[in-house]
Structures are given as C-alpha cells and as structure tokens.
Amino acid sequence: MKSQPVSIRPYSRKPEENGPSENEGLIAFPPGGSPSDAQAILDSLEEGIVAIGLDKKILYMNRAAREILKTRDENPISSDCRKVVNSSECQARCVLAKTVETGEPIRNMEISLVDAFGRRRVLRLNTALLKDSSGKVFGGVEIFHDISQIVALKEELKGRYSFGRIIGRSEKMQEIFDLLPVIAQSKSTVLIEGESGTGKELVAHALHENSSRREGPFVKLNCAALSEGVLESELFGHVRGAFTGAVQSRPGRFELASGGTLFLDEIGEISSSMQVKLLRVLQEEEFERVGGTKTVKVDVRVIAATNRDLKQAMETGEFRKDLYYRLRVIPITLPPLRERQEDLPLLIQSFIDRYNAELGKNIQGLTSEAMKVLLNYHYPGNIRELQNIIEHAALLCNESRIDLRHLPGDLLPAQAQSTFLESAMLEANPVKYLEEELIKMAMAEYGGNVSEVARRLSMGRSTLWRRLKEMKLA
User: Which of 224, 287, 329, 396 could make an SS bond with 406 (beta carbons 3.0 to 4.6 A apart)?
Assistant: First the structure.
C-alpha cells in the first residue's frame, strides 16, 4: 500500500480546550491521524524543528529543538523567535525572512548561538516554507542539528596541524611546526628554502606574528622583481638628488622595518655587488642611504627566502659564501606538495572554507572522483597551484560538492574528459549544457571580464550577456 505524505497545516485549539497546549500553533500528522501521532513522530527525531509564523512568533518546537536551544521557557509557543533562537543570523538577517522573500530554501548553513545557560553552540541549519492547503505561505520552518562537538574537534585538529596560516599533518610539516615557535622567539637570521608556491612567505609571516616583534612592521620585498639600482634604493633608501628623479629623500625597506621583520624573497637573484652591501647591514646593522653620508642604524630581523639551490650557487661562485652562512643561521626547508600528499585533504578543505566565505557559497567538499584526481596530481606549482584549482572549481560549482566538471580541464585524464562529454549527452540539451560550462570556465579564467570572455569564446558581447542572464550569472 502506498504511504500517505505527512501534511502540515496551521492548527488552533478548540474553544472548549482549557489551558495552554504545547501543540498549539503547528500540527503535522498523516491524513486520518491525530495531533498526538504527529507529536510522537516529530519528537522521535534528533534534528530540532522550529516552526515560525510570519509575525516571527514561535508556532511549534519539537523535543530536540527544546534540548538544543535549552530554552528556559516551559511553553515558548507564541514567544518571539529571536528571544528563543538568539543566533548570530538573528542579529544580521533573519534566514526565514530570506526564505520567505526568495521562496528558496536555505541548505546546510552554519550558525552560532548562545543558549539560555550562556553556552555557545554551532548548528547546521535548513529552512523551508510553510503553506496552507490553498498554497498561501503562513510561516517557515527551521530544521537543525547541533554540530558543536564536530566544530570543537575541527578546531582542536586545526591547532594540532597548523601554525599561523600554515596547515599540515605530514611528518615533515610536524617537524617544522615543532621548530617554528622556538625560531620565532629568536632574532637570528632565517633562510627559508623551497620550490615556488610552497608557502615561504606564510612561514615568514608566521614567524613574525609569533615573535616579540609582532607589534612592529612586517615589510617584504621581492629582490628578483627589481634591477640592481632600484633594488639598492628600495633596500637602503636615498637622499634628495641622489639620482635623476630623486626629488626628495625616501627611507628604504630596512628603515621601514626597524623594530620589526624584513622579508627578502628571491634572495638568490641579487647581484654580487648587492650581496656585499647586504652582508654589511646584516653584520653591522647600519648603512647609508643612496647618495648620502649619514650612517643609519636599524634594529631589524631579516628572513630571506629562495627557490634556488644556494649551496650550489655558492660553490659555482654565483653567491658569496660569507653571505650564505650569514643568512643561513637558521635554515628551514619546505617540502614540495608532492612529498606531503597526506596534507592534501586538509589544504583542500581550508581553501574550500576560504572561497565559501569569499564567494558566498556552501560547498561541503568534493565528490570521490574529483578527490581522486586531486590526490593523484603532482602539483608542479605546489600549494599556490592547488589554491588556484580550488578557486577555479569554487567559481564554477553551484552544488554542494565539487565534481570533475568543475576542475580545470588539464587536470583530467582523457578518460575523465570523455566521461564529461558522455555526461553532457545525458542532458536534455547537450549543446546548451556544454556552452554554459564553457562560459563558466571562461568567466573563471578571465575573472569575470565579459569582453575577454566574449573574445575567447568568439561570441558577441550582447549574446554573452543574454546567456549570463539566462544562467543567472549577471
């Protein structure tokens, strides 16, 4: 026999019923059943259920909702929902009001609240509209469960597997995490070595933030991006008239970083003459501005970074031995991402959380197929490349999980790309589906620049705008 769906409709006590009823307001029951049947069904659920009218008065709360919210009111029916729920979203914008306005349910939103006993709780929330038999909306329902323990565990793991904004559970990263707090308290010069994209600047920033110099400035300079003359002026500053265009005196990065930390990236790219000048500052903590004669003293901790093999450069005479050993008082070598595969799930989730916040999305994770591709990829660009991949996928994904079709095409093996085309053939309009996916990919690649996307797809701007509106992307 086919089961009957549960109906939900507004309910009021009969005039002859005396005294308050905790069932007053909203009753859910199978056709032919009674309110007590519905109460038993709803009270058996672990999820909290709160029904709220358009006037923001509580219509109904089941047993789990009362326990999760720890309401002191024995009969919260007809109470103001903001007093009972008291969540972070109540202070910003009512989620039910948004559901009523848009007609769209909210799925898996995380909210925080303080219960009647002053304890902070984190809930995962879903919403839906409540309609009477004629289809008229008379309120909304919030369905939630308490994930406070899960969040607390994640925070504990985050503390165990992170230092600053650096994340990792691999043995190599754990060894680095053990050293960083000790290194942070020292003033000694640090040389961070590792391939491009391994997070050298993050390590430098974490050392600064966890040092006694945290209140001082953190100044950074990419040495490879500047010519020798410009680099000298950037590092040491210049006096007025030192060179053509020097219309006024200007402090350099060493002066700006005094009392704090100076991060010199791509240190292996500086010339031999600049190596001599830098060595003097590191040894004597003093220098003269370009074109000046006055000696400037500074108190700066220097953290340098390179993706070159400086030891080999030293042996070939490209890098001074004395500067190499002066910089390498404390060496830190960051492993490439391919050597810390066990860190991938943590890093992926971290980037998903970041882009959820930036893009206003609610991506929960990856499908098993997409995760398999990312776990088997070799990442020549290291963490920076992984971050770009997740950003690309997050822009394209409008679902709860990132799938193969959301990943950059060059990551997918030929078989996966074939599977993508086959999946397109399952759509009602395969050509339209492929066109929309191409538009999404191009929008992500060109940062939403409509002119560039139109040019890349050989499509008129007006046509592209029309497609974007149809796709609700404009």
Answer: 396
Report the SS3 class of residue 305. Answer: strand
State the Cα–Cα distance between residues 466 and 335, nearest whole angstrom. 47
Tokens 């490209």 sit at which residue? 318
Chain segment 329-364, per-residue pLDDT in tens: 999 999 999 999 889 988 998 899 889 888 888 898
- CATH code at position 193: 3.40.50.300
Same-domain pairing of 257 and 185: yes
As a whole number of angstroms, the longest Cα–Cα distance in the chain is: 100
Q: Could you tell me if residue 52 is inside a domain?
A: yes
d(CA 474, CA 462): 12
pTM, full prediction: 0.59
Token representation of residue 369: 């197929």
Length of the chain, in residues: 474
In sequence order, the 6+-apart residues with CB closer than 8 A to the CB of 366 are 348, 374, 401, 402, 403
Give a yes or no: residue 305 inside a domain: yes
Return the bridge partners of 29, or none.
7
Range of the domain at 13: 7-147
Which of 158, 190, 160 is closest to 177 using CA atoms? 160
Gap between the Cα atoms of 463 and 454, Å rounded: 9
- Cα of 419 vs its chain's centroid, Å: 30
Here the CATH number for the domain that contains residue 101 is 3.30.450.20
**Token representation of residue 360:** 């206003």
DSSP secondary structure string for all residues of 362-378 = ---EE-HHHHHHHHH--
- pLDDT tens digits, residue range 450-474? 888 888 888 888 888 888 888 877 6
Q: Find, among 31, 14, 13, the residue nearest to 23 by Cα.
A: 13
